[in-house]
Amino acid sequence: MTEHKPFEIVVVSGGTSDPSSTRLLADRVAGRAEALATQRGRNVHVTVIDLRELATEITTALVSQLNGPKMNKAIAALGTADGIIAATPVYKAGPSGLFTSFFHVLDNDLLIAKPVVLAATAGTARHALVIDDQMRSLFAFLRTMTVPTSLFAASEDWSDNDLAKRIDRAARELVLLMESGFAEKVREESWGNYQHQFGSAGGAETSIDLNTDLMRIATGGALPKR
Question: Rounded to two decimals, what is the model's pTM?
Fold first, then answer.
């Protein structure tokens, strides 16, 4: 019988209060995914990234492109993740700035094809479309594989059994995508078909053609005469 390594699930929580409803929602998804994976014979290891603990380092990375030790630890965890649960509170009809800033400073190649559950919390159901209207576009740019089910919880949803059903559905989708090994297969078979920035993938991506007309212009060179 083949022994599989545990699934690595990383929770990214943008909640700033303690206790945090955003963290609570993310933990419920992680717990359900762990239970479902266990039923299917797989162990799960969960790592939590609380963005409120990284706020200063996220700001530094935004203005200087320099990562502190907590940021480097978070990046390393995401790099080895088999699945991600990304949860944010909604402020002023959008994901929190802390949440979006964290993902803005990540290497564009870090999350390619990784399965992601998107979750958000707010005080009113009027913000329910924030996930599909704003968050999905960010994670599409990062080239992740977001699960079909979005998880949104307003104040009145916590006592509603429908939230538990949606959590179960999203967690199951995450487990199935992790089981498929899709992200690893994409990286093995199709990495070169993606557009990369020079020095991305932790500095390892150096195969970009620097001898194109566009790159010559960017580096101050002259175009060849035609």
Answer: 0.86
